[in-house]
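Annex B. Sample input.
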Amino acid sequence: MNLKNHFKTKKDTFRMKHTEANLTEYMQEQIIAWLPNYPREYVVVCVGTDRSTGDSLGPLTGSYLTESRPKHLTVYGTLQDPVHATNLHDYIKLIKTQHQDPFIIAVDACLGRTDSVGCIIANKGALKPGAALKKPLPEIGDIHLTGVVNISGFMEYSVLQNTRLSIVVELSKKLATILDAIDKQLTYKNITPAVVLPHIKEKSI
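Annex B, continued. Sample output.
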């Protein structure tokens, strides 16, 4: 496989199907190349809600990643404590309080073309959560990872609600594996424990 074939015209985007054999190796290599070359606090923010099948990719990824007990990544957004539209502002404030100059990796579900379903996409720059549903939410992340869970273009909210759980689980597990592999490559002396920090009270969605 030619690694260059996975790059779009801009070098700040990289995508692969979640079924490709070398997914973890190639994704890890690309994301590591985007990380700063000096020590930072690393924060993973998994955006989404467990109340929508398609939008549960973020919380599932956060839960799977937390189970692997990463040493250098602090994880926000799990099935128990999701980061979603109604509390995202609060979590951004919390992260700014808890971490000094963090490097944030955001994770979220997205919709795309038929041939993109099942792809994992890594991008430099901030995530724009809620874009598919036209929700005005704050951007978050220095880089972001998305999993294409279903087809875009019509009634996006309904599409997310009716997405198959199997594809969401598969993508979440692959994303957690990629992030865990990155954690193992971080060798900075200051080890940050991966803990879910204080729960922010749920608001109705």
